[in-house]
Every structure is written in C-alpha cells, then in structure tokens.
Amino acid sequence: MSGGRVAPPPPGGSPGPYAALVDEMLRRHGLRVRRWRTTRSGIAVLLRHADGRMDRWIESCYPRGPVSLAIFLHEIAHHAIGLGRYRPRCLEEWHAWRWAVDEMRARGIAPNAAVERRMRAALMHAVDRGRRAGMRRIPALLRPFDRADPSARPVQAADGDGHHARGT
After folding, report:
1. Greatest C-alpha distance within the chain
2. d(CA 166, CA 105)
3. What is the pTM of this model?
4. With the CA atoms of 68, 28, 59 and 105 taken in that order, what torsion angle do they form, in degrees rounded to the nearest 10?
5. DSSP-based helix, strand, coil % in the chain, nearest 5
6. In what order do the strands lie in the sheet with 42-48?
7. How far apart are CA 110 and CA 105, in angstroms?
8. How far apart are CA 3 and CA 31, in angstroms?
9. Where are the domains of the chain?
10. What is the pLDDT of residues 51-105, one digit of tens each?
11. How far is CA 27 from the centre of its chain?
12. Whether the Cβ atoms of residue 146 and residue 138 lie closer than 8 Å to each other
C-alpha cells in the first residue's frame, strides 16, 4: 500500500481540530483506519498474506482532545516504530507511548495531566499483562510501572496530610 486510505471522521460531529494531523499521519505511514472506535481504545494490526501482500491498519478513537489524540498517535506509533520490534511486548508499548507524546510536543501540543495519567495506566496494565504471561525480568524503563515492585514507582504528589497518593 503506497499511501494511507483516509477514513472519514465518525458520523455525528465535525472533524475536530486534528483532522489535518489525522490525514497526514495516515498518509505518511501508509495506514488505513478500519474503524473509528467510540471508546478511548485502539489496536494496530499488520496482516501478512500468503501472496506477500501486507495490510497495515489501525482502529482508534477519533482525536478530538489531547487524550484521544495521544491514543490515536500511540496506534500510529506501533507502525512507525515497527510492530514487534521491541520485546517484551510491554517495552513496545513504552516506545509507542513515548513516540506519541514526542509527536504531540513536536507539534506544539502539550500532553496534559490526563494524557500522562492515561499513559501511566496503560503502561502499568502492559507490565501486569507481561507478568501474568510469565515475564520475570522487567526492563529498566518499565520498573516505575511495575505494581509488583512499589519501591520502584515514582513518588506521587503528597496530599494535604503529607501522605503520598497512590496512582492507578
């Protein structure tokens, strides 16, 4: 596929402030949107056919604000960095989130606290899934997101009583 097939924005609203960015990212990375999701979730897929063809697509929420933009860019990132390039899988998740946040910053879009919370929650979930799958060694980049090792987690802001809030 030489260029991305641009899916129209989901029905029921205007394209939003990121329409040009959506078109650019899909074209630049030769991707298509299989379906716009109504939830803040996504998936990046690379299908290799027996005849050598490859289909590269994503499903994502349509970007209308910073969090949905970060999720969209995160799915683009899996293709941009290469699906399966990093092992274990949770390390690929870290690189995809880093790519998405870096892309936002490069375009003058500051990732807000909600984006940071979403990224942290997603990485904690990825490490949890890795542990459930039998992963024993957590890569150093992911230790702050390992619920099994609370001492490795970054310090949260203190509440009014001087206790540290525990992030999710």
Report:
1. 64
2. 27
3. 0.85
4. -20
5. 45, 15, 45
6. 32-37, 54-61, 42-48
7. 6
8. 7
9. 19-150
10. 999 999 999 999 999 999 999 999 999 999 999 999 999 999 999 999 999 999 9
11. 19
12. yes
